[in-house]
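pinging the channel bc i need a second pair of eyes. not urgent but kinda urgent?? the chain im working w is below, pasted from the shared doc
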Amino acid sequence: MLSGSGGGWGSKGEVTGKATRGRWTFVVITAIALGGCAGVQNRHAILPSAQIAAPLKLCTPVAVPPKDLFANPGFIQFAVSVRDSLGRPVKGLKRSDFAAHAGGQILPIQYFQEEPDGAPTSIVIVMDLSGIMRGELIPHLSKVEAVQKALPDAVDRLNGCDEIAILAFGGNEFADEHAIGQTPGPGPYPDLHETPIRLLQPFTTDHRLALMRLADRRAYGLAPLYDAIQQGLNLLESAHYQNRALIVITDGVDNSSALKKEDLIASVEKSGVPVYAIGLGEPHTSHIPRVVIIPVPLPIPIPIKTGDVERVDAETLEKLTAPNGGQLLIVAQPMQNAGVTLTDELNSIAAALNHGYAIGVVAPAGSGRPEIAVANRRQLKVRAHVTHGSQ
């Protein structure tokens, strides 16, 4: 019983005051709770890639030539990696260990800087999610699943300043209920439900965020490999660093691109971007038949193998990786050689990007693109690509 005598529950005024305080306490607690929940949602909610905040903690490159040299019209700067016969980075080389040639002339090396941690690099990873990638690479793991398992270790070895973008081709919104992202541009693809090329993650230095965007994806549908590589080159044009690289993880089959192979090879050569390709499967250098998609009354078409369709088109990938100091690595299917694993090859690419030398020369007009080599040590493999200047 409520009364004005102060006994029992207290007076009506006291009750009103307590009720008011209770309401305010509820409002404050609710606000704090909602704020906390909002913070969790911001960290964990799955959103289209265009809406995801992509953290960028960019670093200033260490290798910066003097301004007068950098402004010289003939100055060309290279990012150079040197590896021994076992594929390990060679460190501690001096300016005198290198030689530069162009048009039959020996060019003096005007600028030299070893970068033990690797120059900050803009990297686009082009991931094949087409239907053929459902095939097993190792027992009980499809090619896509094997990559999802091995890629984090390699990415952890990259320079923390590197910015990464993830581009995927193949896959389907209906085949993967978590498949999200924006389509860079419409293409001549027959199935409107497919999103053959998707930007899963814009450039970010948050490497774990980028990997999250690739997790739990499913292999499905067509393989516009050439179109995807071109999209990757286009994306690198908006990168923040001059040192750039394209990593392509694929079974090497293209069955639906609008772009011709010859045009893509020319585009790669012109870009100056090194392409590192990992081919998943047995190499095959002759014509690869297309995948036949049989229309059936199901939400997912069924890819039918025709001949050597699952063999890696090593010849084409070699032409794409050769021009700008890239590299082609083949992981056989099934992996019979325990010494050559997907993890090893991914780590090999990370090592190549994570140590190098900045070398600058002044090339005479019309002399062509200079070649960089290590003098008197033929067993070493040198890869160089232009980061500044004409080619």
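so The helical segments are 12-44, 67-70, 143-156, 207-212, 225-236, 261-271, 314-321, 342-353. and Residues 1-51, 175-182, 184-190, 285-309 have pLDDT under 50 and may be disordered. — does that match what u expected or am i reading it wrong
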